[in-house]
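Notes from the pairing session

We agreed to fold both candidates in a single pass and log them together. This is the raw record for the first candidate, unedited. Please don't reformat it; downstream parsing expects exactly this layout.

Candidate A
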Amino acid sequence: MEQSAQQAQQLDHLATAPPLSRSTFAAFGAPGLGGPAPAAPPDPRPILELEGEEYEDELDSLGDWVDDFLLPVYGTEVTTASPWCLRWQEHDDVVAWLHALWLAYQQHKDPEAGLSGMFVWHRDFLTHAIAAIRAPGGPLSACMTSPERPAHRILPGPPSSTRIGKAKPQNNETPGELEPGEPAS
């Protein structure tokens, strides 16, 4: 009987959680184990949604990364098949692509991404983004195609879409059909 009582006491002791303040994990900041809850990382926002000084600061940081890391390592020769623009910051689509690439780089170089994080960044992000930005028919195609001839030109985009109101069809009309003599808008 005495042995059964000791086993019951031991089971009760093992089933009771230790006080959180005495956790050996408290120093590591593990949530729920006595450490402070980690601060939530800021929500990344696409650079084109930023305005004013916030946009300028983000563009400066992006420019540092592009000039100090991306181009020296991955900036292949400028040719007609792989154009570049010294004023890439004026091409909104290029800024958006490079910013997304930079955010992905930051995420995948983090130790939490694991040992294959940078491989994933190369495979899933870098190759595709650079191919889209520097494509012969891409956003920089009217810019520098030879280092001896620096050039910059923003290609015009398509005009705004025409909105068509949805009118309720009368009689046997099909929606969007013009009445005889009605001017096309």
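Candidate B (folded immediately after A)
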Amino acid sequence: MTAGRLTELPIEDVELDKANPRIRRFLEIHSGELTYDHIALALDVANGTEDAQGATTPQKLRNSIVQNGGIMQPIIVNKLHDGRLICIEGNTRLFIYRALVAEEVPGNWTKIPALVHESLAQIDVDAIRLQAHLVGPRPWDAYSKAKYLWELQNKEKMPIDRIIALCGGNKRDVTQAIQAYAEMETYYRPICDADDYDTEKYSGFVELQKSSRIKDSILKAGFSLKDFAHWLRNKNIRNLADTRQLARILSDKKAREVFLKKDIKAALDVLEKPELTVGLKGATIGQLARALTEAVDSLSYAEINRLRENPDDDTVRYINDAFDSLTKLVTDLSK
């Protein structure tokens, strides 16, 4: 890739890049003409909130541009063979300039600093996008990143090692993102209407990739990833991080029934408060302590090994809970 030419371009001469993952994601779920308001939503320019993690939000960027009288970092433009100028990096900055002109904000916003390349090859365009938005100051949202990575691997046939080298990530994260996107498109998109496709559910599919135990538990319980997609859509799983709790829930009959009828929170409540028999409920603390001592003393070596190899087993959790409660009780009794 040859060095670009630094110049200033009239904002009306530069086209927003409809292949930009943010804009293209919006185009896929909204039919009709792409309006000014649509582009604002796609680029998240209409969102005036501050990012809690310190990323450059559109509002911060707009305020900085107005305060400094322009952008410090030029946009990157690809001049095509037919003379068209496509903004391949800096669509949000270009849009803000256009908005400032439309709103008649004082300042010179009719021209924008730009680094212009002549007829970039697609691989060079991809490299610029990856470096700017997968590890840059204002990264794309997780779904848009994964979509772009999937397309590079499956449509443009870019080797995974090349993708990793360009975006600076690690192989595990990149492959998990690609697989999560593929599964979401396969199982979640078909059950949604065009305007009902919630890309935020992508995080749930990411959780699926983090442990084979989760997928195994879904299949062992007689369900499929299509069922998982329905659970996300029907809000059986509201907090997507709770996806990692499915192995525990689906292996417990009572918790599984509650999960399918209600949601994962209700199912977790069942696991946290297991039903006790009438006999156990009526036993004194002394009787329960003696019974626990006898049960522990008679525990077989094979069972101890089984529990050691299955730290997520409900029995292990109950033992740890009992240990914490007994430790506190012994401390109180010794005062």
